[in-house]
Structures are given as C-alpha cells and as structure tokens.
Amino acid sequence: MGFGKGHHLHLIDGSAYIFRAYHALPPLTRADGTPVGAVSGFSNILWTELTRERASDAATHIAVIFDYSSKTFRNQIYEAYKANRPPPPEDLKPQFPLTREATRAFNVACIEVEGYEADDIIATLARQAVEAGGSATIISSDKDLMQLVRPGIDILEPMKNRKIGPDEVFEKFGVGPERVIDVQALAGDSVDNVPGAPGIGLKTAALLINEYGDLDQLLERAGEIKQPKRRQSLIDNREQILVSRQLVSLDDQTPLDISLDDLEVKKPEPEALLGFLTKMEFRGLARRVAERLKVDVPVIEAAKPAAPASAAETPAEPLRLGFDYDSYEAVHDLAALDRWIARIHEVGHVAFDTETTSLDEMQAELVGISLAVDPGKACYIPLGHSEGGGDLFGAARKVEGQLPLEAVLARLKPVLEDPAVLKIGQNIKYDLKIMARLGIRIAPLDDTMLLSYAQNAGRHNHGMDELSELYLGHKPLPIKELIGAGKSQITFDQVKLEDAVKYAAEDADITLRLWQVLKPKLHLNRVTTVYETLERPLVPVLADMEMAGIRVDRDTLSRMSNAFAQKLAQYEDEILEIAGEKFNPGSPKQLGEVLFDRLGVPGGEKGKTGAYGTGADVLEDITTLKDAHPQGAALAAKILDWRQISKLKSTYTDALQQAINPETGRVHTSYSIAGATTGRLASTDPNLQNIPVRTEEGRRIREAFVAPEGKVLVSLDYSQIELRILAHMANIPALKQAFHDGHDIHAMTASEMFGVPLEGMDPMIRRQAKAINFGVIYGISGFGLARNLRIPRAEAQGFIDRYFERFPGIRSYMDDTVAFAKANGFVKTLFGRRINTPEINAKGPGAGFAKRAAINAPIQGTAADVIRRAMIRMPAAIAGLEARMLLQVHDELLFEVREADAARLIASARAVMEAAAEPAVKLDVKLVAEAGQGRNWAEAH
Q1: What is the pLDDT of residues 914-932, one digit of tens each?
Q2: Which domains can be identified in the chain, with CATH numbers?
Q3: Which whole number is the average pLDDT over 768-783?
Q4: Could you give the CA distance from residue 636 to residue 790 in angstroms, rounded to a whole number?
Q5: 3-class secondary structure, 334
C-alpha cells in the first residue's frame, strides 16, 4: 500500500546534525588516524531517533537529508549568497561521506540533490506527504524551515525536544508560518548573506507585515510609511528585497528520483550496521545495537588506547557487581573530564547527580558533580569544597585541585543539553533546577525514582537508599556519617574531598545500576505509556513552576498574624468561660482531663502514654452530643475553632513570611511526584495544597498571594472532576445526564434521594447530599458521614443506604473494583496507571481502609492523570503569551499573566484542561474548567 492516510514521515536534517555533533564532541580518531568524532555523534543521534518511543507521531517513513555542496541555484540568483560562511574544518571534511555511509548502514534513506539545499528537499518531501494524505515531522533546529509549518507538517527541535507549531513560529518571527518568508526577506540574514532591507530587523519586519498584510502590499504602499528611514529603505532597496525573498523561499518542487514509498521504515540489517560500527571502532554503540537486534556483540580491536575499560564492555548483571570505592575517580583536570565526556557520547547515556550546600534548590550552591556511564565506574568533579581557618579571620579556604566552575559548565553544557545523550537521575528534578540556575537545561532525561513509582506505587517508597537495598542488595553510604546531625552538622562543601568522592560517585553509580534494572521492566509491567506520558514529561514542567514561584505580600501576612493572635486570645477567653477553669488549650493532656475527668464527657479512651485521645475525630464526635452533653459539645467545638486559627497562624501567616526567598521575593514550593500512590502531587517547603478554603479565615490566606504590577493571577479549576469520572466509570445515567444538562449535581442528588423539588431547596439538604456525593467517592462509612454532618450514626447510615438504592451502579462499581483488586493486587486508572493494593486481602481493622482506598484510587488517580496531562501540554499552549503556570492545587491550576493577556490565557488554558483526557480516553461526561482572575489568589478563585 502506498504512502497515504495514517502514514507519518520523519525528515532528519542530516547536515545540521553533522555540524552539531562535530562541535559538541571532543576530537576522536580511528586507529588509522581518520577523524570520526562527528560520525560518532551523528550515529548516536540517528540511533536515538530510530529507537525513540513515540505514540501518536511514530514514524512510518523516514529519511535523512543532506546538502550536496555549498553551491546551489541560489548562487545563480545572488552570487554572494552564503559567501561569508567559512569553509568546514579540515578534520570534518573526510567525515561527510562517512555520515552518508552511516545513514545507509542504519538502513535509512540518504537523500541529496545537486544544486539544491537540504531544506529544499525537506520542503518537497513534506509537501508530498501532506498531499498524499499523510503527515510529516521535520527534525531540525533550523529556523528557515519554520516557513513549512502548516496542518500536517510540524517541526521537532531536537536540542529541546519540543514541537514547533504555528504558536512557536509566531513567538520566533512575530508572524504565522505563511508570512515567515516575507519577514525574512525584509530582515535579511547576515549568516547566509541575504541582504534584506538595511535598518530593518525581525521585530520591525513583523510589525510592517502585520500592518500591511504581506510583502507585496508593503512594497506597493511603502510611500505611506511615516518613519522616514523605514520608508526610504523600502523604496531604495525594493529589488534587493525581492531577491532576498527568492533566496529565503524554499523550493518545494525539487526534482527527486525517490518516492515516499521508498522511505518506509525498515529494520537495520545487523551484518551491514555492525560491520560499519566495527569499522568505525564505535564499541559502545555497537554493543547497544547488538543487544537491541539480539545478535552477538562484535569484537572491536584498535591499535590506539580507547576510553577506560568498563564493566559495560563485558556485560555483567548490575546486581553481581561489587561497589569498589577505590575505583571511583576524582576529576582534577580538564583532560580527564574530556575523557569522561567522550565516553558519555560513545555510550549515549550518563547517570548525573549534583552535590550542593542545601536542599533548597533556589539558594543551594553547587559543590560538585558526579557522573557514571558504566556500572562500577563513576567519577566526582569537585568544584566548591573548602576548609576553615584559611586566613587571619578564620574564613573558609578553597581546597586545592578543584576545577573552575565556568570551565566545567562550558564542557558539560553541550552534553547535558544534547538530545542524543540520555541523562539519568534519581529525583532529577532537583538537579534540573540546580543546573537551570547555572544556565543549563538538562534534556532528555530518565528518573529512576519515577521508573520505580510507575511500577510500584503502593508497594514501597522510591528513595535511592531503599531502591538500592531492594534491587541491588547494597546499602549506600549514609550522609549523616559525612555531615553529622543537629548543631554540629556541616554542609557538603566542608566534607573532606576523599570522602566526598566515594559518597557522590556512589550515588551516580547506584542510579545507573537502578536504571539498568528498572527501565526494561516498564514494558514487562505494561506501564511504559504511564511513565512516558504522565511521569517523565512532567519533571521539567514542575521544575519551571517551582523556579517561578509565587509572589507573597509580607505585610498582608503580618496583618493576618496579628489578627489571628487577637482571635486566639478571644477563643481562649471563651474556652475558659465554657470549661469553668483555666487550662492550656494547646495541651492534649490537659484538654483530655477537662473533657473526660472533670466534665464527664462519655467515651474517653486513653493511649499508651496514659493520656486521653483528643484528636480532631474525637472532638468532632463530641460536638454531636449537643443534647446529651451540651457543655462538652460546646467546648469541643470551640477547641476545634481554636486549633484551626492556631494552625493558620503557625503554618501559614507566620511560616510563609520565613519562606519568602530573599533574592526573588517569592515563595517556591516543591512538588513531590511520587508522594501519593494515586498520582496526586504533594506540595512541601511550604505546603500550599492544604490551605483551608472551607472557612472565611482559611480563604483569606489566599489574599496574601499576589500578582506583580501590571499582571493578574488567573485560576482554572476543574468542576467536580471526580464526580464526573465516577459517573463515567460507574456508568450512572442519572449523573451523566445531570452533568450533560448542566444541573447542580448536589441539588440533583438531594432531589433524587429525598424526593424534594430542585426549586427552593433547603441548603441544609443540599449540604447533606454534597457530603454523601463526595463521601461515597472516598468509601465513607456511616460513622464517618455522621461525624462530617454532625448527625446520629443511624441517620447517616440511612442516607448512604438510600444513596445506593437510587444509584445502584455505584455499588456495582465498588464491588467490582474490590474484586479486581483482590484478584490482581492492584487497580488501574483510565490511563493505565497501576496503583498496587498489597493490603487488600488483609483481615482486621486495616481491611476496611484498604477496600476504601482501592475503590477511590481509580477515580482520584484518573483525576490526577487528567490534570497531569493538562500541565504537560500547558507550556506549549501558553508559549505565545506573557504568562507562566505557578501552582497546582488538587484540581486547580494557578497562572500569572499580563493583565492584557488574561482572556487569551483563560481561553487557551481552558481548552487544554477540558480536552486533557483526549485522545487516550473519551469520557462520557464533559470536563469543565471554571476560571477567575484577580490581583490576588482569593479574588482569582
């Protein structure tokens, strides 16, 4: 069958890859002296592209496109075209034919046409693909190709692994793809020696084209332009501008002697490919290829010294390799660092870790970097170690033998940003933020913590030490032995160098070995899609959000703290009046004695310490005893109020003032991706997800979160997403219809259950229905509902029984879910996330909790997956706006945006959120995102 609908063509800009590989890699020569560094980099990039796992845009056809020579038809139009470009380096010239040979060895079409540039060939093939009913992705960082973007044609920028569509083109040129040529013709290009219009740059060109429509109209009406310099430049250089348009316009009618059908993806022929790699002496890549193709690894011998021998050259199980701390290397000179970088490029991956002075990524200073490429072989690059007593004032003195930070970053930046090199970390989000502050954007990445989380959520934690003991049988060096604890604790920059090398290099070594164990298991456990679409791509999104932070008004917090202090004093007076005696309301022991011993409230239970339990659940139960024990009920209610205000003051209005970053003036929370088994994110340092919103005082905390001058905060919140998912998963027609009709779902439930009309409904009845709706999702018991509504238990159980009678599908869903969990040991979200339920078959008090967790997990987990998908898509959706995503709080996303762009942001973000489940899942109930905006978070929500 010929190329057509459903087929997808990948067009790789081979010439650009060669130069990038050449400049990114240190010189590398074959045994016979032939330079092959660029060929090595090119081959690794090509192999990465061929083995990259994609979903919707997987290539069915592929080709690598090259420039035939530096002379093309454009030199006949304008002799000086590209005349300014220097000739290629002498050691690169012999590598050009080898890259073509490499392409053919990989069984990929290799295309070049005399007299035309690679860009012209790409334009022609992309056009043919769309006209045949298929689509094309151009893999290149060349801005000149952006003129080709249209429905069916997009660009993948390999350095950043990001898609280029119309929005990204507009961000670059200020116009849509169809007007890129006009803008380039005006602005010219000094690199390619395209003359353009003198004095007119990209921004001015975009302004002119947007005002006049296109280049022809602009030149026709040039005399109308008010600015004299612009007007004269356009009039005087009309012919030059038109020539420039010819030079920048890609020829999509390039004559080709190859058809789209000839470009169908084919598996490499092992003999041909390994023969080429053997000839090139590319050991690491040959090994990876052989393993992938399931053939014997070829033996490659070379006369020259190669990279250090490693365990990966003679494959061994990571579990069986010992941890020899003496084999770890301290990198003290740049030549040694270059050898490690060369090995990284040869293998195509590196385990990467940073050592710093603090766990706060926004203030931590980089102390050192550790790398591991092969199991048992790792290095540490010390950068900022110091020792005290260095001068008359006792100031720290930098330890000798360390490399300059700038020189190390300059060498590591290309490899850390190279899309052909996979960077592997354990909780790599931390390292992303450390390096981003130093101007390096790490990509692509793998995270061993998330590899474990995708497979084992609910079974165990995913910290490195625990994973190391579980999978490698090895207990890592404890950090406390190096830095101590308490008042005597030191920071890592003060750790002795020889100790730091062992500790830091071991971290990288363990991370690499965990990756070798965990990555292959993704497919076996059928969670590859979960990891690739929900976990891994979320890391850089969260890192950017955390670095952005949110502005907090210290004065507002201070005023709130003072108001809360006065409120607490008032409550303490009222507590004294109710109790009839003075005691410390913050003391659980004293409170228990007053409630159960002196006031005689029934039901008091003492714990192991001999003190009565006075937790929130106990006090909530006591508040229901208004008739039986009014004094105890009143005291319990007032203590709960006191505790709430006390917590707001200590946890938020006081603590948030301390959390404001002195450099940014903003609060930077940290999100834990692997904290909850269901996929929900957790927020720490500070926790911004537990700010109470049910009380007026709690809602007021959000007033302190503000937008800078000229900007507003925008909140988009999913409306009742878990109930909508429940309606879909449990297939409840009444709920689905109510959502479809836009009814008040809680009022509808109350009407169904209690037989009361929707019009003029008692708010108390609606509140009871709301508590039941949400309670059922969490598997609430009659006892729990009674506590929430402060009603007798029998009445609450009657509500639940009636609920299941009205909506029998919910009971069936719950029973089916528990049965599935018991049979399989896990439950799944609609997107395939696996949530393990190891306690589901347990007996005793924990059995009920395990069942409730299993029932709720698919619903809450699916909701978490939906908002993750929205967050991952959001940066691209709002890229053209002066806006950024700041916070995720349960079902809400909070943005900061220029006031003039707020409406556009809301439209873009809402579209992303409401379509976030698609195309993977088609819900029966439409998702709805409600939006608001304001100068502070309280106004926006």
Answers
A1: 999 999 999 999 999 999 9
A2: 8-263 (3.40.50.1010), 318-525 (3.30.420.10), 553-659 (1.20.1060.10), 721-861 (1.10.150.20)
A3: 77
A4: 12
A5: helix
